[in-house]
Amino acid sequence: MNKKLLILVILTQVCLTITSQTPVLTNDSARNSIDILKKTVEDYQHRFDILEKQIDDLLWFERLGDVAFIDKVRLTSSPRWKPKDQNDRFAENKLQFYSYVFIPKDINRKKKYPLIVLPHSGIHANFSTYYYHIVREFISQGYIVVSAEYRGSTGYGKATYENIDYGGRENDDVMASRNYIIENYNIVDSTRVGIVGWSHGGMISLMQILQYGDKYSCAFAGVPVSDLENRLASHDKSYSDYFTAPYHIGESIDENPDEYLRRSPTTYAKNLSKPLLIYTNTNDNDVYVEEVKLMIETLKIYDKKFEYKIFENALGGHGFDRIDTKEATDIRYTVHKFLERYLNPPKPFKSQAQMRKAAYGF
């Protein structure tokens, strides 16, 4: 039974219960019952997400266990940027979050290996086996990979979901995961660290390389969210609702433009000091090409040296270089070759065919 059908069944059961127990409802009591029903369904949604995440975690070990040591660790980062309750004496407690660690099984424990920081995409999403083939590509070249389930991720309950800090302290979580690996694994070379992300993960890649350039050797940002003013102007109200939610910013961009400016990579374009590669696609139906072009043009205004490519109607739209077609993997090969120049992995790919065999077995 899929998630939507399960929610419908629960909703029907609750409605039947209310109907059977309340022969006659006044307008006020009906509204109250509906509000209770909505809250019940919303709470169940988070429980379903937890179950989904636990199942997907098993798939990581099942599908990647032949080539990688896999771990999932619990770390701490900065507190919530805005306390939910000003009277909460624990409001300054650092938030806890999970992070995935992938280490090639064939490593030499006496040597040092490059690190890939791989933040997941999605405004409310998580690091799922959607990235399985990509992680396998990194592992086969001898990279160590870390991916933070930063605040706002799904699969960890309502509190984590509502700790969302889009463009803000989610970046602290990603940095904390980077630092954890370097501080605790002596096989990691702290001078060879790259960050790779797509979409929201691409936004985090930009924010990391622009705000903490001294911590990274290079960055790849695929179809990155780049400018919230541009993005909100081109998307419908359902997108802005993520930001105006009371547990997030709680204000619109018109009410508090500076806050949205603070959360936009374009604001920090002048800081670029490390190699950066940006990919975008003209038929991207999520992060529109115009938004990414704004990032590109802003970097040019500051006379920054970086690489980029605008793909023309590449198949797959928003996910054009993350899917499993030959066209997509050939494009992804160019990303690996960019990273290779700055991170020097021990076993770099020599051809697209070698990369596909590493990821897919054939």
Automatic annotation (TrEMBL):
InterPro entries for this protein: AB_hydrolase_fold, Peptidase_S9_cat
Positions in coiled-coil regions: 27-54
Gene3D superfamilies, alphabetized: alpha/beta hydrolase (3.40.50.1820)
Endpoints of the signal sequence: none
GO molecular function: serine-type endopeptidase activity
Domain Peptidase S9 prolyl oligopeptidase catalytic residue range list: 138-344
Domain of life of the organism encoding this protein: Bacteria
One family name in Pfam for this protein: Peptidase_S9
GO BP, sorted A to Z: proteolysis
Keyword list, A-Z: Coiled coil, Hydrolase
Record-given protein name: Peptidase S9 prolyl oligopeptidase
Source organism per UniProt: Fermentimonas caenicola
Phylogenetic lineage: Bacteria, Pseudomonadati, Bacteroidota, Bacteroidia, Bacteroidales
